[in-house]
Amino acid sequence: MQRLRANAKIVATLGPASSAPETVRALYEAGVAVFRINFSHGGREDHRARIRAVRAVEREVQRPIGIMADLQGPKIRIGEFAAGPVDLSEGAAFRFDTDPAPGDSGRVCLPHPEVYRAVAPGQQMLVDDGRLRLEIADCSDSHIAATVLAGGPIGDRKGVNLPGAVLPLSAMTEKDRMDLSFALDQGVDWIALSFVQRPDDVAELRTLAGNRASVLAKIEKPSALDNLAQIVDLSDAVMVARGDLGVELPPEEVPSVQKRIVRACRAAGKPVIVATQMLESMVAAPTPTRAEASDVANAVYEGADAVMLSAETAVGRHAVRSVDVMSRIVRRTEADPTWRSVIDAGAAIPDPTASDAITAAARQVADTVGAAAIVTYTMSGSTALRASRARPAAPILCLTGSDRTARKLVLAWGVSCFFSHDANSVEEMVDYAVDMAKTHGFAEAGQPIVITAGMPFGTPGATNMLRIAWVGG
Known about the structure:
Number of strands: 21
Radius of gyration: 24 Å
Number of domains: 3
Strand order of the largest sheet: 1-2-3-12-13-14-15-16
CATH class of the largest domain: Alpha Beta
């Protein structure tokens, strides 16, 4: 079936509610471009089966589909309590320490030595996704004495967030390293890195992944914002992971931080995903709230490359419907007459390079002649990413002979990827571009298309040619 094209893409998480092959196919047809495999849940056989199901759909539809492996990252958790959960009252004193003995109403074990070295009096500690908030009064290498600011029940193995601290931890645990090796062996296209605090975290993953998968940095720690430009530069894409980010930041700061990250990625020409709780009510309900619909639309207005569904498709009762609803919101937003002016207002300034000059010219030429599409030939993906960065009005038809590049580029704004053979001459390239644009419904007889490519053919990153061609009858 021919899917309705939208510029902003949809990423959907596979899980118990969506692992059946027929469900994966239905999710794709509803609008999913990239499937996320969450390595925080499930076993190897579950992940392997989901990856195989996606690749089976890809073979059936003969279109590239992206797969993202999302690594769990380190988790800071307290120990257990001797008699079950305890209630902490506002103003009460509570202690975290390295003693492995079960906790009580006055203390609990926090078995993470690195935490004690990173905190200081006056900093806050958040427990159980921020449901409890404490302020550190005193600390040493083996204890933290804190005062409860916002109380409530606290139970076994609850997570701890430390918004004021940069922890001396690698973003990758031993589990993550094993999961990374498995994911790369399975041929995933993207590796999403959790717990990014500093540029070195991204550099470490890039070294380990090599050229076998693209690297996506999840911005979920406030400390990452201090190094945002470097993290964006080192990454192939970025995710605004609003779940953990919203725990460690005051809620009123999250919308402006989201916009800041999206702007930084658009300026750098790196795909950016807005994620977490976008249609959260659809985990149980068949329709979203109006606020959720507006949340998705706002990300589209900002020019995000993609919006993501997590629990909605992984464990929700309405997985396929959630994707369909999100797809309809995206398309309706992009049909709004004001959407184009908002997108153009945030346009990135071209870099002073020949490649960016050609890309900017391609957009201008396409607007001037009313081109039905901009067709890019690319091996590395850089030509198509530059075209996407320009946010043109014409759809971008990307032709590549590289499976890995095609699957990477399905995440990029406005890009429709197709597997193609390599062209041996300009004439062959133009003829093939015209044929593909017509065959796949991008252009009709008599309409012009704009073509960009790098010469000589197969030279990565050398976008230096622009042609106009007309589709024949």
